[in-house]
């Protein structure tokens, strides 16, 4: 692999952008070395500034579920751009994507579009607090809900990679309203309810955690949270920014058959453009301005280019009845392949997977929460990451990330990947 041009571009970027990047995990701090600068991408592949071709297992951290530069999405954006790129006025397009999303996702009557997953989660808890007239929320260690203040408390992912579970700049006043529980630990949540009677507005959770690697909910865990929320008049917020339109048409709610009160979206819903959304039944959504008292707004919210991309993406996912099954099968094939080669080479590992979310952990014990996720062998992960990069395979540059499988990957791509992992695992 050649890195000269990426190195040069990174050095230039560092002079004018903090750390050379606009989002920390891109900087390779968790694995060392120089970030790869992308020139273009198509289908399952990235093409970088040095002329390398990489098989991509990040896919913009999830959105490109049908592969890069997917034709119907690109076409929708291009055609829409000719009509003007932003008005700050309503368009029919917004109703079209809202209708489609509401038809695909269970338990929601209305949806509001914002510009990122961060905004979606931030607005969702404000809405939950306004609706319940309570201040506190419960979040789980290692779950990431964007970088708004209330959530930067053991936030997994980027925040974990850098060992900054609590960011400076978040006030004590804000932090005290975020109660922390262990993922997959129902007893923990029950205690928080007992000690904070009638004070908890909402539980926010990634129904399948994806920001400490992929961690599935234990059987009964989500059901237990649902019951506790009913008992305590607390809202259950599913942060489906990662799982939404990925694990099923209706996301984790559909997959596990659990009703959330508010659902947050991002990533896939924008088809690769900056989109987030939050949704709920009318009773809750009608609390939002201009109907209700909870304020929330956005100059570029519902932007026509973003809505066109999102609509094209959701339409494809809605009409292709085999898509989620196909993604699951491809990812299962990859999982089995990786298991075999790691076993052959006597590497200690755990693989977690739900549908097209998968992560490999160099742990001796099962990875079920943030504590166990942190127990992985990071040095081994670094070798694994750089070894794969040399073989033209691009996985996330952090041990705390899920791999995102795209439908553009062929079985040949998967075989090449398994072969590369075989080779790399001989020297782990
Ligand atoms: C990515 C992510 C977010 C934040 O979304 P941004 O668009 O990066 O602001 C929130 N929640 C989850 C579960 C995510 O994976």
From TrEMBL:
Task: Write out the pathway annotation from the protein's UniProt entry.
Answer: Porphyrin-containing compound metabolism; protoporphyrin-IX biosynthesis; 5-aminolevulinate from L-glutamyl-tRNA(Glu): step 2/2
As cofactor, the record names: pyridoxal 5'-phosphate
Enumerate the GO terms in the molecular function aspect. Answer: glutamate-1-semialdehyde 2,1-aminomutase activity; pyridoxal phosphate binding; transaminase activity
Subunit note: Homodimer.
Where in the cell?
Answer: Cytoplasm
Task: Supply the PROSITE patterns for this chain.
Answer: AA_TRANSFER_CLASS_3 (PS00600)
Keywords attached to this entry? Cytoplasm, Isomerase, Porphyrin biosynthesis, Pyridoxal phosphate
Q: Which family does it belong to?
A: Belongs to the class-III pyridoxal-phosphate-dependent aminotransferase family. HemL subfamily.
Any single GO BP term: protoporphyrinogen IX biosynthetic process
Q: Which top-level enzyme class is recorded in the Swiss-Prot or TrEMBL entry?
A: isomerase
- Which Pfam families is this protein grouped with? Aminotran_3
* Record organism: Flavobacterium piscinae
The superkingdom of the source organism is: Bacteria
Q: What is its main location?
A: cytoplasm
Q: Which CDD domains match?
A: OAT_like (cd00610)
Q: How is this protein named in the record?
A: Glutamate-1-semialdehyde 2,1-aminomutase
- Is Nucleus among the key words of this record? no
According to the UniProt record, list the residues that bear N6-(pyridoxal phosphate)lysine.
267
EC number(s) on file: 5.4.3.8
Q: Which InterPro entries match?
A: 4pyrrol_synth_GluAld_NH2Trfase, Aminotrans_3, Aminotrans_3_PPA_site, PyrdxlP-dep_Trfase, PyrdxlP-dep_Trfase_major, PyrdxlP-dep_Trfase_small
Q: Which transformation does this protein catalyse, written as a reaction?
A: (S)-4-amino-5-oxopentanoate = 5-aminolevulinate
What GO cellular component entries does it have?
A: cytoplasm
